[in-house]
Amino acid sequence: MFSAAVVTVSDRSFAGEREDTAGPRVAALLQSAGYDVRTRMLVPDERSMIEQTLCRLADEEDIALVVTTGGTGFSLRDVTPEATLAVCERRADGIPEAMRHASMAITPRAMLSRAVAGIRNRTLIVNLPGNPRAAEENLAAVVDTLEHGLNMLRSGPADCAVEHDAVSKT
């Protein structure tokens, strides 16, 4: 069981002006997929605060998977992808590509998502949209595969070919 944290990035939710509904939905999906959701938190759309939060969760709390929701659109205040890339050492571009691909089957607006994913030390950070339904749909598209990535990240090399061959024969 991998540890997880859910960070909702929203000025209005942080200020108490709007209830955070995306964070609880994302946390519930992670829990149902077997993750130990250790924390859920709110931060405003402030790049430095987002960066500090991601660094603390990765470096001090050693969370395996950090999922953000919000701040991935076109608004001038939407800076979650920039904050994420600033703290990550390596990108994981296939994850947001897969999310956008799956989401495009639901709405053409999925192409407007600027979500990114990356690795900081031994922590995988994945951005999700702020819309609760979109966040849940995007995470559902990749959650099963994330475990394999975390196994490689946390446990060392994995023989991907063996697992792929075993899956393709079933």
CATH fold-level name: Molybdenum Cofactor Biosythetic Enzyme, Chain A
CATH architecture level-2 label = 3-Layer(aba) Sandwich
What does the radius of gyration come to? 15 Å
- Quick check: average pLDDT? 93
What count of domains describes the coordinates? 1
What does the largest sheet look like? 6 strands, mixed
* The CATH H-level homologous superfamily: MoaB/Mog-like domain
Task: Describe the protein's architecture and organization.
- This protein is of the alpha/beta class and 170 residues long.
- The chain has one domain: MoaB/Mog-like domain (Molybdenum Cofactor Biosythetic Enzyme, Chain A), CATH 3.40.980.10.
- It is 48% helix and 19% strand.
- The protein has 7 helices and 6 strands.
- A 6-stranded mixed sheet has the order 2-1-3-6-5-4, with helices on both faces.
- It is globular.
Question: Any key phrases for this structure?
Answer:
6-stranded mixed beta sheet, 6 strands, Molybdenum Cofactor Biosythetic Enzyme, Chain A, globular, 170 residues, disordered C terminus, alpha/beta
Write the layout of secondary structure elements.
Elements: E1 3-9, H1 11-14, H2 22-32, E2 36-43, H3 47-60, E3 65-69, H4 80-87, E4 90-91, H5 94-104, E5 117-120, E6 123-128, H6 132-155, H7 160-168
Parallel strand pairs: 1-2, 1-3, 3-6
Antiparallel strand pairs: 4-5, 5-6
Helix pairs in contact: 2-6, 3-4, 5-6
